[in-house]
Amino acid sequence: MKKEVAVIECLTYDVLMKKYLILLLLISISAQADVYRIIDEYGNISYSDQESSHSEKVELNKPSTYTPPPIPVVIEDIVDTTSDDNEAPNYQLMITSPSQNENIWGTEGNVTITVNISPALDTERGDTLLFKVDGKPVTDAQTVTSFSLINLDRGSHIALVSVIDKLGNVLKNSKSILFHVHKNTIRQQSVN
Q1: CA-to-CA distance for 87 and 82, rounded, in angstroms?
Q2: DSSP H helical segments within 1-152, as ranges?
Q3: Separation of alpha carbons 41 and 87, rounded Å
Q4: Contact (Cβ atoms closer than 8 angstroms) between residue 142 and residue 123
Q5: Helix (H) or strand (E) holding 154
Q6: H/E segment holding residue 92
Q7: Main-chain phi, psi angles of 54, to 5 degrees
Q8: Can you give the pLDDT of all 192 residues of the chain as single tens digits?
Q9: Which of 75, 89, 134, 144 lies 20 to 30 Å (CA to CA) from residue 17?
């Protein structure tokens, strides 16, 4: 029933748009009539679409036009029918370390990001992990489920890990994790 209503609404919309298009076409045809300027004996200027003995034809500039860029066609639910053997596993991916909103002290900015992935990476398909911090990859794609960052700047950072295929297409993203790096500082002691 919903499908039939959608088809009727679509047809109604199409018919309505065709009527508006015809109306606009008729208006544009009538808008192309000549325009005449008339100055009366008191110096008042008026315009008309009818020529008279006291009128002069006004040359109008061509109207500006706009051609919108083409709208790309979005094709949803494309199914790859080449081979079921090549289908990507339904990966479940979660960053286990650091934890959400974790404060990391005293490591001089050395942080290890660890992920848990299920099922295991399908290396025969060429699936790998890509580690990102603050939106930028921090290493090449790899099959190891952890990566150590050395001397990361102090402050807040966001980690994200993606499973990518051999063509670089993202198959699955983990939830992003916010963590905070605190570095030790050396305080000057006053000399007595």
Answers
A1: 9
A2: 2-31
A3: 86
A4: no
A5: none
A6: strand 92-97
A7: -105, 10
A8: 555 545 455 556 677 777 777 777 666 655 566 888 888 888 888 888 888 888 888 887 777 777 777 766 665 544 444 444 568 888 999 999 999 999 988 778 889 999 999 998 888 888 999 999 998 899 899 999 999 988 888 888 999 999 999 888 899 999 999 999 887 766 534 444
A9: 75
Domain 87-182 sits in CATH at: 2.60.40.10
Amino acid letter, residue 112: T
Q: Judge whether 163 and 119 are in contact, CB under 8 Å.
A: no
- What are the C-alpha distances in Å from 46 to residues 27, 38, 40, 49, 57? 22, 5, 8, 11, 12
Taking the C-alpha atoms of residue 76 and residue 70, their distance in angstroms, rounded to an integer, is: 18
Instruction: Tell me the residue type at 72.
Output: P
Residue in the structure block whose two tokens are 């297409």:
169
